[in-house]
Design a protein that fits this description.
The chain has 287 residues and is an alpha/beta fold. The protein has a single domain, classed as 3-Layer(aba) Sandwich (Rossmann fold), CATH 3.40.50. The chain contains eight helices and eight strands. α3 packs across α4.
């Protein structure tokens, strides 16, 4: 009888948790989007930023994750670099949020360069407000890795007045086959053009080349990439790690010999699990 009761209670707990998984909200609620070039009523659903809630009803973990999918700043790979990642984090007992951010366009933003960063900052501030006793890990993929890296390095550049008093610095960063540099020799040119193009100022190239934004206050960082990545060369990752090393910031790099780009959680060419290694590394860091 006791075992049946425990099973029933467990099932109820799972149902309660399931009700919260993946619930979506507009990032800015019912308010107009700061910095938008159009009112919300004139935007398509895809042009309104959203936060998918994968909070667990009860989690003893002291980390909560903000997941930022990639897509070259021309789309959002919300499934394999978003929902799948959050679901696996849930399986490991961690709460998570998936950000569907606005894509940089002059049609919908007064300054397209900073629209995605503004959304990421609002998402981080929201997560901190709802998880006051937890540390926030930002995990980003490809161009989402660039946005996660921008959030990690440009936290002293709040994009709205409402964000000026918020703590916008992630506690930890996880950058997966990330776009890092705007240097033409190694950048992903599509991401560069979408974010700061089509005409490139030297100031923007410098600001959004994240290897140049690392400081002694940067957060511990887990990096992952494949050496044969032809879309976003691994040199992006190497340069970010070099900057972290120069500043004495704890970091580690998980590399695959093969796998290319955009494989998400599973690199079919290698049985090693970067995701498990990432969690092990985060949990090994001193508090």
């Amino acid at each position: 009888m006791k075992s049946i009761l425990i099973l029933m209670l467990s099932m109820v707990a799972m149902q309660i948790q399931a009700q919260t998984k993946g619930e979506v909200r507009n990032l800015y609620g019912d308010e107009e989007i700061p910095g938008a070039a159009l009112p919300v009523g004139q935007l398509t659903d895809a042009e309104i930023p959203k936060l998918y809630d994968y909070q667990l009803a009860s989690s003893e973990k002291d980390l909560v994750f903000l997941v930022i999918p990639g897509g070259g700043y021309s789309g959002v790979a919300i499934n394999h670099e978003g929902h799948d990642v959050a679901a696996r984090l849930n399986d490991q007992g961690y709460s998570a949020f998936v950000l569907s951010y606005r894509l940089p366009t002059v049609k919908t933003m007064k300054d397209k360069r900073f629209g995605p960063l503004q959304d990421a900052q609002y998402a981080l501030a929201t997560i901190r407000k709802e998880n006051k006793n937890k540390k926030v890990v930002v995990i980003g993929f490809s161009a989402g890795g660039h946005l996660a890296g921008s959030l990690s390095t440009l936290y002293n550049h709040p994009q709205t007045k409402e964000l000026k008093k918020a703590n916008l610095r992630p506690d930890f960063s996880v950058l997966c086959y990330p776009v890092i540099s705007m240097n033409d020799t190694i950048t992903h040119k599509g991401s560069k053009e979408k974010l700061i193009g089509p005409e490139f100022s030297a100031k923007d190239v410098e600001l959004f080349s994240l290897e140049k934004r690392v400081t002694k206050n940067s957060q511990p960082t887990f990096l992952m990439s494949a050496k044969d990545d032809k879309v976003v060369p691994i040199e992006n990752t190497y340069r970010y790690q070099q900057s972290l090393n120069r500043m004495g910031i704890p970091n580690t790099l998980f590399t695959y010999e093969e796998g290319g780009h955009g494989f998400g959680l599973v690199n079919k060419t290698d049985a090693r699990d970067w995701f498990a290694a990432m969690l092990d590394w985060l949990n090994s860091l001193p508090e």
